[in-house]
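Morning run. Coffee first, then this:
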Amino acid sequence: MSVIGDRFKLPITLQKGIELTEEATKSNEGLHLLMALNYGGHYDMVQATKSIATKVKDGVLLLEQTDNKLLEQELATKCVKFARPDLLIRTGRTENQ
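And here it is:
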């Protein structure tokens, strides 16, 4: 199981529960549950862009090395083997933001 999203805005007890669950299931094989909590597509793009910008600023990466593949590697969904899920259940807001 993996959880993506801005965890630091979640209650500390939930953050600790997420960490424990991820640690306990990290060696599991087969199905992979990906939970998106406090997550949005725009949030993910901004975080990925910030990560790439920091790497360029720190000299770890050249600006010319940035491309779609690199952006995909920086997205939160990189934590799963298959970034395109078989099933997506969306609850909460009815609008994508």
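The beta strands are 2-4, 34-36. Good start to the day.
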